[in-house]
Design brief:
7-stranded parallel beta sheet, 7 strands, 47% helix
Length: 261
């Protein structure tokens, strides 16, 4: 299927590792121009080289997204270089384990700031360009917003807010032809997820218990599966889809997690 993305420009936050890297690579395969925005310098440069060696084009912007002015400069740099922005993938974030019982108000506020504010900032500054291109926004959320996890109030609150913003922006921006959707992963084996699994005393057993609860194939969702859905939502092939939360998780959230096949 031709997604008609050739030479279109998409900013992907946290685009150097895990799900973000898979999205960047999928965009490059489709002939699009991904802008890798985040603070992972080595991984970003390695990914840029890989894309270029395969004949693709991309832009690297190494930056910490904690300040709104950083998002503004990233948008300006992208627009100056390519002349247009066709979409935003808000992906960067960290499940930092700031809970209620084991957290505190200051840490909670910092967690929400880290995981949520740049979603708003980047779309705010990119909006004039998205209006021109009738672009698309995809927010990468998490099943924690729907099911909870325990011990991660800041992250869960941020992910829930991202889902709310998805529907709010879809309503506000429909008059400009701008579509806004969210992808909701559950259990995806990323470097961050692996570190979480490794924190358990018996990590292999813990991983096995999780995968056995996933109805489709008793396996983790891959980053590439999240990327495929995300890139489809960015494309004209999903031209009448907006305000939606697409849960890509092998049935983990949709089915009761005690489901046995």
């Amino acid at each position: 299927m031709n997604l008609h993305l050739k030479d279109k420009v998409f900013i992907v936050t946290g685009g150097a590792k895990g799900i973000g890297e898979a999205i960047v690579q999928e965009l490059a395969k489709e002939g699009a121009v991904p802008v890798i925005l985040g603070r992972s310098k080595k991984e970003s440069l390695d990914l840029e080289k890989k894309i270029q060696n395969n004949g693709g084009n991309c832009l690297n912007i190494i930056a910490d997204l904690s300040d709104a002015s950083v998002c503004e400069r990233a948008v300006q740099k992208t627009a100056e270089k390519f002349g247009a922005i066709h979409g935003i993938v808000n992906n960067a974030g960290v499940n930092d384990g700031i809970g209620l019982e084991n957290g505190n108000p200051e840490a909670f506020r910092q967690s929400v700031s880290t995981n949520l504010m740049h979603y708003y900032d980047l779309v705010y500054f990119a909006l004039p360009h998205l209006k021109e291109t009738k672009g698309s926004v995809v927010n990468i959320s998490s099943k924690t917003a729907i099911t909870g996890q325990g011990g991660t109030s800041g992250y869960a609150a941020s992910k829930g807010a991202q889902l709310a913003l998805t529907r709010e922006w879809a309503v506000e921006l429909a008059k400009y032809g701008i579509r806004v959707n969210a992808v909701v992963p559950a259990e995806v084996m990323t470097p961050q997820y692996q570190r979480w699994i490794d924190s358990f005393d018996d990590s292999e057993r813990s991983l096995s218990e999780i995968t056995n609860r996933i109805p489709l194939g008793k396996r983790m969702t891959t980053s590439e599966e999240i990327a495929a859905t995300t890139v489809f939502l960015l494309s004209e092939r999903s031209s009448h889809t907006t305000g939606q939360w697409l849960v890509v998780d092998g049935g983990y959230v949709h089915f009761d997690r005690a489901y046995n096949q």
